[in-house]
Amino acid sequence: MSKRNPEYDFKWCPGCGDFGVVRAVELALAERVNRLKEPIENTALIAGIGCSGNLVHLQEGPQPFGFHGIHGRALAIAYGVKASRPDLNVLAVGGDGDMLSIGAEHIGPQAKRNVDMTVVIMDNGIYGLTKGQASPTTSFGDITPTTPYGKLEDALRPLELYMALGVSFIASGLSSKPRELAAMITQAMDHKGFSIVHVQSPCTTYNDTYAALKGDEANGIEPLAVDIQSGHDPADANAALALVKKPGIPIGIIYQLANSVPMHERLEEARDRLKVRSRTVDQMLTALEI
Amino acid sequence: MSKRNPEYDFKWCPGCGDFGVVRAVELALAERVNRLKEPIENTALIAGIGCSGNLVHLQEGPQPFGFHGIHGRALAIAYGVKASRPDLNVLAVGGDGDMLSIGAEHIGPQAKRNVDMTVVIMDNGIYGLTKGQASPTTSFGDITPTTPYGKLEDALRPLELYMALGVSFIASGLSSKPRELAAMITQAMDHKGFSIVHVQSPCTTYNDTYAALKGDEANGIEPLAVDIQSGHDPADANAALALVKKPGIPIGIIYQLANSVPMHERLEEARDRLKVRSRTVDQMLTALEI
Amino acid sequence: MGADLVVRFAGEGGQGQVTAAEGLAQAAARVGYHVQTFATYPSQIEGGPVWAQTRVSTNEILTQGDQLDVLVALNRQAYETHIPDLREGGVLIYNSRDFDEVPEGNVIGLDAEGLARETGNPRAANVIMIGAVAQLASMPQQLFVDWIESRFRRGRPNDQEVIDGNVKALDVGIDAAIRSGYGVEALDEPPVIAETRILVNGNSFLSMGAIAAGLDVFFGYPISPATTILVFMETALNQPGQFVGQASSEIESIAAIVGGGFAGRKAMTSTAGPGLSLMGEGLGLAWMAEIPLVVVDVQRGGPATGLPTKTEQSDLFKCLSPGHGDVRLPVIAPGSVAECFPAAIYAMNWAERYQGPVMLLTEMAIAERNEDVTKPDPTSFPIESRLVSEGADGNRRYAGRELTPFPIPGTVGASYVANASEHDEQGDTTHQPQVHIDQTERRFSKLKLLEVGSTYESENTSASIAMLPWGGSKGPARAAYNTLRAQGLDLGWYYTMFIHPMPPALLDELRSKDLVIVPELNYLGQLSSVLRSWGVNAHSINQYTGLPFKEGLLVTKTQEMIEAKSGRLVRA
Amino acid sequence: MGADLVVRFAGEGGQGQVTAAEGLAQAAARVGYHVQTFATYPSQIEGGPVWAQTRVSTNEILTQGDQLDVLVALNRQAYETHIPDLREGGVLIYNSRDFDEVPEGNVIGLDAEGLARETGNPRAANVIMIGAVAQLASMPQQLFVDWIESRFRRGRPNDQEVIDGNVKALDVGIDAAIRSGYGVEALDEPPVIAETRILVNGNSFLSMGAIAAGLDVFFGYPISPATTILVFMETALNQPGQFVGQASSEIESIAAIVGGGFAGRKAMTSTAGPGLSLMGEGLGLAWMAEIPLVVVDVQRGGPATGLPTKTEQSDLFKCLSPGHGDVRLPVIAPGSVAECFPAAIYAMNWAERYQGPVMLLTEMAIAERNEDVTKPDPTSFPIESRLVSEGADGNRRYAGRELTPFPIPGTVGASYVANASEHDEQGDTTHQPQVHIDQTERRFSKLKLLEVGSTYESENTSASIAMLPWGGSKGPARAAYNTLRAQGLDLGWYYTMFIHPMPPALLDELRSKDLVIVPELNYLGQLSSVLRSWGVNAHSINQYTGLPFKEGLLVTKTQEMIEAKSGRLVRA
Ligand SMILES: Cc1ncc(C[n+]2csc(CCOP(=O)(O)OP(=O)(O)O)c2C)c(N)n1
Ligand SMILES: Cc1ncc(C[n+]2csc(CCOP(=O)(O)OP(=O)(O)O)c2C)c(N)n1
Ligand code: SF4
Ligand code: SF4
Ligand SMILES: [Mg+2]
Ligand SMILES: [Mg+2]
Question: Would you say the CB of residue D43 lies under 6 angstroms from ligand 2?
Fold first, then answer.
């Protein structure tokens, strides 16, 4: 919440997973400010449209620069910010509808460029803000206002998608564990390249998955969310792929490309290597003299 | 070429790979007409915008219904056609820019719905019609008018993407082998669900990859395109994944989901199972009587 | 006794304001009153300022009502925001929990939540408020008992318990009002209406109209305030051969209905501004390839993400010219809930008739409000379907400058290429100058077909100054018009839902006026601007608050404009 | 001796027409003539009908030339299409291979390909044609030898061989023309021009203007006829801190430049109609969040995929109102190649000055043609940069109804939320009616800032009828105007590249006219329609062929319109 506007009128529902995510973002940014002695204004927080995107208004304490734009385009805006200002720490946030349905086209290009930014996707398996329609991650068979006969589309497996697109850092977290989540976000921001932190952030109003994520060991119900075993080596792409292909949702750092070279370093390297010299406008004009 | 309009003025460059693709489409459609005794007018051929998309105008002989729309949207249009008319055979064609850059967002949804249609992607690793800019499949480091210092983005690996998105039939072909390609397209059209035939179709003007695809065994140059070994079982998803992760381009049928249930059958099944009864408008109105 | 009762329930989201307003409307409609509701809320799921209003009347209702007879303020902030709208002599019911002192005037303090808990039904606070309102307006208790019965009888074991609890709550409210000694003017007897009436909101009625017109396939992406159309279709459009799909984006929606229209089906999507802005290229495609389809734009506040849950009439420019190039789409804009049903039928018919895309332009205030309307007889509307090619000469699809039969895929001998590049008569791409001339004129000449049979309202046509509202501003404009006429002003009245092409006779009449006043909910004066480009001396009364017009404001602004008539009125 | 030479090379794609036309232009420009080229071709890489034209003149060139002095027909079809444009007494050079009989008139048959092969350089057929043309117009051989030298001297081992082959080809052509005995009027001596001249096309000149104005970042997706701007930027904009990106779509382009503008950089994209149609939502976002940026729309034929390689002026409606809601973007449209450089600077300055998106509207015919223009001094243009927040009160970003300092990310104490939903002064979302009023008026009031310093041309301002062309129709309109004035017609002349906001003094003058004639390359009469909505009695002369206006046609149409002045001229 912007400090000067306590009347800002957006509220999340009680228990909404996004409360945990905003807390994690606050913690991670605070830690970064502390550690790098970098002002929080050096961070640009680019939000999508959805309950999740309202995170940009709901941060407590010191505020980064924020951008609350249009549905589905947070990553494309963030790309523009980072390409223009490699010195900024760029963080994009949004929901599963925002990032994986209408905005799905924007993941691949940023991954291929390895734009040095971090994306936090708040996956509640539903369209929250528009009142509970199915999203790409809604389970097959689920009944929602737009799937009255049960969802007839297979659920997207986002972690597999990120792997196939070559995202250079992939983590999977839980909104109910803000400290662990904060640590993941920190690591993602420190990663030199395109990083995604995919968060299970349940929607208490339209798709309450807290119980399913947690399971009920006593009654023999396996938890959906499973911590990644400590032996996992995120630098091992094959192991990472095997992890995301298993049933259930692995929680932890899934993949991190070793020696990742982000876009702006690639460009600098090429300009240096080719000794690219820029011409002034006057030089360009002179070359065209008759 | 539409039979009544020999003056149609679009031409591909000599040697363009798309000549082989149009031949393959003609062969596959002719075979289908013959075998199923279904008129060619039962096929809707939905084309993207690019040199490749002009295929819809360049077919010789009997003509299916055609649609030549806007850049990147062939799959979304084709989805509407198939959803509206499950009785039609729906075939979409387009280039790597059309399908994997501006239109990239449309593959996932059709795959998840398992819309029963076939997509032929003519991959020349370049934007042909706009004169040779880099496309998602252009190799890293390649110099083009938009990548004067070499392409700084990693190349997309389309076959891996299709696997991650759950495309239920995936084949990989060569424009230089129209008969083999025709057989793949036939099999894809026969597949009940969403099928992609990804074709290496070189652009002789801007990205001539004939030699690289073929290799030069005599001089120790490995071919880029490698026939899939006969032992491969397309029903084995793990084997398929292993295949597409190897270097080089596997040629053949990569993956086919067994017992694939397409969108329109899922819907029918749900309507039957739930005994969905539709109401007339009058009944709807009556329910609202005061 | 009076003709009218206007009640507003205001508070924080989640306090049941909308249910209360709708309950009041349902109960009153049941005994024969005319009713209209209106609600406004922020773009979020819980909390935030929400208010809902109901007007009950013995006459046809034109506006939600400028002034309140009863204000129910569920918290202090609501009291402060809304108290200026309470008319003199009106009664304030306030949530006494939230107030330290007793406000001035005719006031009833109720600890609704506390009292509700006492009745054993903590969620019945709004029913207590309804009870108090009913009593203030001398409406019979039984009416609301019936409403409770119909609302809570759901075939569950504890139905009776819930019903009893709510009736108890109702009585608590009634008692409190009796004890207060206040009252508002009692309503006259309800009118006797011969026709069957239904209570319906704009989006539902529009959806039913489209289905009545033969809608086959629908694709849509959720967006306020259009989502309810998609949701309606999901369960309504499920006969064999019909299809409803939640699209992955509005770009997919428009492309998919283009596919549906091409495939020979009647196809529709619904969206709001942001989605419409994404459909520009697809709509141009439909125009160019001549594909029948209907796009419903339920306007909200713009631009960009704007005001997702507020009302505005600022998408007209965008609907007329959704994309680049020479395109001017047909636009139909219903002016009330009642008009939504026929407007949808007209839009579907137009799409089929001229074989191209049609915009059905509505707005949040109509989409979501409930009104009692005459139940229509769907069979009484002529339904049109496109002229279909038999196949013999199908692939001369784009021949000549007139409408040609539409070739349906599957028809032997009818194959052609539906083409969004400039094309010759069989759909092959060509860029010859003469072909572009011919095909451009072909596309525009087909619009002429839409001039047939479209109608308009007119009154006092001899006046040199006229009022021409559009869309949802019709009701408030009409109310203001009635008042101004009663005051003796010589003012003409014109109205049509057919914005483009506009009925030629109407346009001729408007061109003959000295001044045409267009009340519209936007800054730019979009319709008046278009009308001026059509040769009409039109000028707007603008409002851009996210809310509908009030009658009083329109009366004043109209008077002012007529006085300023000689001044410069054009806004560039 | 004459002032003018117009030559057209016509044939099939791949026969070197464009090179020939440009070679002629370069050679002529070098000795001081004014030149202008024009080329038109289908949307494909090889083949199809292509023609290219060069005009050489001692005077400033206004049009490509209606009538040809020399037609070079490289095949039969080209002969048939273009022979009507050859003026009486003009000379036809034809490819004798493709003709069975000798056409009538002053004709020179050349088997250019055969002769080229004889010179040892089979690709020099077009140089042979140039030689023949040069001789016909009595242009000195040395001119073209110099051109060949400059074109083929590339530092490769076989340079001299290639050059010699081409000179030989040139001489073959010259000989053929001499043998024919024909000739066209020899050109007068070239004018003496003091300023340094450059030969440049519109897209390059526009790109250089943008860079001169301080462009930092550019994102674009390939699309004809805008691609060359993206390609230009790729190698031109490569200082540290600058960035050029090929976007994955136009939706990404617009979003990325919004990001760039937000980040404090001067950002631009270029596109054509289909891409622009995809940018509607993003442009609304920039308007709402108040992000400075420039979008170049290089118009081609529309709608939809339309005519990708032809020219048109039909995107004006779309540029003014790209998305839903109340948005009206600033639009600058250069009228010639020469104006592209300053227009780009103005557009960049405007974006910075009012902190919002600006449309730079150009068109294929300007983008691709080469013209000789005075070499500008980049330092002579004032360059503007946005007012920047120091941080102290940065997060009152959206305070008040006036421009506020722009907070640049990284500035301590300046953080705010750039917001595309309606927002309060620090960018938090709110939907309060008063806030929407204030912020809407804030957004529009900033446009006033753009009225400062913008200029217009005017001539014979006392006439009651005036001509006002826009964009690339300026040249042909001016040519027609000159002719009509010479005929004694009392006609006023107005022109500005500032379409919106239009200079207020210009608008006032136009409003005082009985009739304003707007020649424009579209069906709907887009500018005249907008002008009528602004209170100007404007009417269009329309053409929609994919080609620029001819002077002769404009002369006739203007006369006709003035005669029909009393008739009904409005096109709805
Ligand atoms: C172009 C466009 N289409 C649709 C919408 C409406 N809309 C707002 S948020 C949203 C989806 C919300 O779902 P998600 O992204 O999962 O976020 P959540 O609310 O669940 O956090 C939609 C469809 C919009 N604002 N803009
Ligand atoms: C919205 C839009 N953007 C851009 C274009 C321009 N355009 C036409 S084809 C094309 C890409 C061609 O590349 P590809 O899809 O790989 O087809 P190819 O020509 O290589 O077969 C582009 C960018 C367009 N027509 N529409
Ligand atoms: S609707 Fe769901 S996602 Fe939105 S605030 Fe409520 S709980 Fe959270
Ligand atoms: S440019 Fe390339 S893809 Fe296009 S027709 Fe020529 S060879 Fe084929
Ligand atoms: Mg969600
Ligand atoms: Mg390609």
Answer: no
Strand C538-542 and strand C515-520: the pairing is: parallel
* Omega before D330 within 30 of 0, i.e. cis: no
Q: What residues have CB less than 8 Å from A265, skipping those under 6 apart? A: A192
Q: How far from B251 is each of B199, B225, D408, CA to CA, in Å?
A: 9, 6, 52
Mean pLDDT for C412-421 is: 95
Cβ atoms of A234 and A253 within 8 Å: the answer is yes
What SS3 state is found at C120?
Answer: coil
Q: How is B62-102 classified by DSSP, letter by letter?
A: S--EEEE--TT-HHHHHHHHHHH-TTSEEEEEEEHHIIIII
Residues with a beta carbon under 5 angstroms from ion ligand 5 = A 95-97, 124, 128
Q: CB distance C236–B271 less than 8 Å? A: no
Cα(B3)–Cα(A24) distance, rounded to whole angstroms? 65
D8 pairs with which residues across the strands?
D53, D71
- The number of angstroms, rounded, from the C-alpha of A106 to the middle of its chain's C-alpha atoms is 12
**How much is the pLDDT for A263?**
97
Cβ neighbours of residue C302 under 8 Å, at least 6 residues apart? C273, C312, C314, C315, D284, D323, D324, D325, D326, D327
Of C126, B21, C328, the closest CA to residue D318 belongs to: C328
Give yes or no for residue A92 CB within 6 A of ligand 3.
no
- Which of the four pLDDT bands, split at 50, 70 and 90, describes residue D98? confident
| pLDDT tens, position by position, D38-61 | 998 887 877 788 899 999 999 999
Asked casually if ipTM beats, i.e. exceeds, 0.95, the reply is yes
Q: Topology of B18-288 in CATH?
A: Rossmann fold (3.40.50)
pLDDT tens profile B192-217: 999 999 999 999 999 999 999 999 98
Q: Across chain D, which distance is largest between two alpha carbons, in Å?
A: 84
Distance separating alpha carbons of residues D281 and C466, to the nearest angstrom: 36
Categorize the per-residue pLDDT at B250 as very low, low, confident or very high, splitting at 50, 70 and 90.
very high
Question: What separation in Å is there between the alpha carbon of A102 and the centre of ligand 2?
Answer: 21
What token pair was written down for B67?
A: 């649609």
Question: In degrees, to the nearest 5, what angle opens at C-alpha D260 toward C-alphas D255 and D265?
Answer: 155
Closest C-alpha to C239, from B271, B116, A151, B261: B271
Tens digit of each residue's pLDDT (9 = 90 or more) over A257-278: 999 999 999 999 999 999 999 8
* C283 CA → ligand 5 middle, Å: 28
- Calpha distance B281→D528 (Å, rounded): 46
pTM: 0.96
C554 alpha carbon – ligand 6 mean position (Å): 58
| Cα distance between residue C555 and residue C552, in whole Å | 5
pLDDT tens across A104-156, in order? Answer: 999 999 999 999 999 999 999 999 999 999 999 999 999 999 999 999 999 99
Q: What is the 3-state secondary structure (H, E, C) of D441-467?
A: HHHHHHHHHHHCCCCCEEECCCCCEEE
Domains plus CATH for chain C? 4-180 (3.40.920.10), 199-380 (3.40.50.970), 387-452 (no CATH), 457-566 (3.40.50.920)
Burial class (CB in 10 A: 0-12, 13-18, 19+), A31: middle
Is residue A5's pLDDT more than 70? Answer: no
CA distance C507 to D541: 23
**Distance in angstroms (rounded) separating the CA atoms of residues D276 and D282:** 10
D206 touches D336 (CB < 8 A): no
Query: Which of B225, B212, B217, B230 is closest to B177 using CA atoms?
Result: B225
- Cα–Cα distances in Å, from C490 out to B243, C467, C539? 82, 11, 18
User: Where do the structural domains in chain B lie, given as residue ranges?
Assistant: 18-288
Nearest-CA distance from D287 to chain C in Å? 8
Angstrom distance (rounded) from CA C131 to CA A20: 41
